[in-house]
Design brief:
Main location: membrane
Helix content: over 70%
Shape: flat
Number of domains: 1
Family: Belongs to the binding-protein-dependent transport system permease family.
Number of helices: 13
Oligomer: single chain
Radius of gyration: 24 Å
Largest sheet: none
Strand content: under 5%
CATH superfamily: MetI-like
Pfam family, one: BPD_transp_1
Subcellular location: Cell membrane
Distance between the termini: 45 Å
CATH class: Mainly Alpha
Protein name: Sugar ABC transporter permease
CATH architecture: Orthogonal Bundle
Structural class: mainly alpha
């Protein structure tokens, strides 16, 4: 009887939180799914149900395919750079935890993650500037001619990947540091007695034990990178100053279809596709790490 009362009390206590979560998180997803099945024009009173017509038009749209390709390149580029670099930096900082500069290292690396996106992007826009930017000034020392980082389509994507990786690195390092601090010291001591070097301890002991952390960091980094917006909006402006036109990405494409073309249903179908892609990639990451962990 007492156990049942506790269970009922716990359920009643958590219901308000579940209700808020459902309203803030679940309801918008359902609304987006509903909108994607309608021809929802802001300027029109008629909003007829059209089924999957938005999705059929979507995959025949060359602009959408370009946005999807660019977003995927940016997301996987950020993931490939951030994960190994964060793991190595976290290992180095953890190795120097007794140093009086350990807190300084942690703070310095984490600062980019808490800096507002727009000021950070403006600073990097100056760094990448073709005429006045310090990056081209440094490259000129090595005899490399100035590069149009923000106007060349390929270099614009590279610039966005660098900026997003710089911002994502601090969070990934912090999470890895938590993982390193909770690793059992007995395993490292045993491997050291067996003659394992520091690199061998890192690769064969630490990395396998940090697989759950790697899973979380990879999913969080990939989801965040697929939702890239402000970085592109600020960095990749065209010659006339139109934001984000040099590199078309999914979120900017959705905003343009919503507020410029007033096609809310079509933009909602893009959001549904983005949600499905993120869910599929998350499931793949879970399955890959689970398979590696069982071997």
């Amino acid at each position: 009887m007492l156990k049942r009362r506790r269970w009922i009390f716990s359920l009643v206590a958590i219901l308000p939180v579940l209700a808020i979560f459902a309203y803030v998180r679940v309801y918008p997803i359902g609304e987006i799914l509903r909108l994607s099945l309608h021809k929802w024009d802001i300027l029109s009173r008629e909003k007829p149900f059209i089924g999957l017509a938005n999705f059929q038009e979507l995959f025949g749209d060359s602009l959408f395919r370009t946005a999807l390709f660019n977003t995927s390149i940016i997301a996987f580029g950020v993931l490939i750079i951030t994960l190994p670099l964060a793991l190595v930096l976290a290992a180095l900082i953890h190795h120097r935890t007794r140093s009086r500069f350990a807190s300084f290292y942690e703070t310095t690396i984490f600062i980019p993650h808490v800096v507002s996106l727009v000021p950070a992007a403006m600073a990097w826009k100056w760094i990448f500037d073709a005429r006045l930017g310090p990056l081209n000034a440094v490259l000129s020392v090595f005899g490399i001619p100035p590069q149009a980082w923000l106007f060349d389509p390929v270099l614009s994507i590279v610039s966005i990947i660098v900026l997003c990786s710089w911002q994502a690195l601090g969070f990934a390092v912090l999470i890895y540091l938590v993982g390193f601090k909770n690793l059992p010291k007995s395993l490292f001591e045993a491997s050291k007695l067996d003659g394992a070097s520091g690199i061998q301890q890192f690769w064969f002991v630490a990395v396998p034990l940090l697989k759950p952390i790697t899973l979380y960091v990879s999913v969080a980094t990939l989801v965040s990178a697929f939702n890239v917006y402000a970085q592109v909006y600020v960095l990749a402006s065209d010659a006339q100053g139109a934001p984000g036109r040099q590199v078309r990405v999914l979120v900017l494409d959705m905003l343009e279809n919503t507020f410029r073309n007033y096609r809310v249903g079509y933009a909602a179908s893009e959001a549904v596709v983005l949600l499905v892609i993120v869910l599929i990639l998350t499931a793949i990451q879970f399955s890959l790490l689970r398979e590696k962990g069982t071997r």
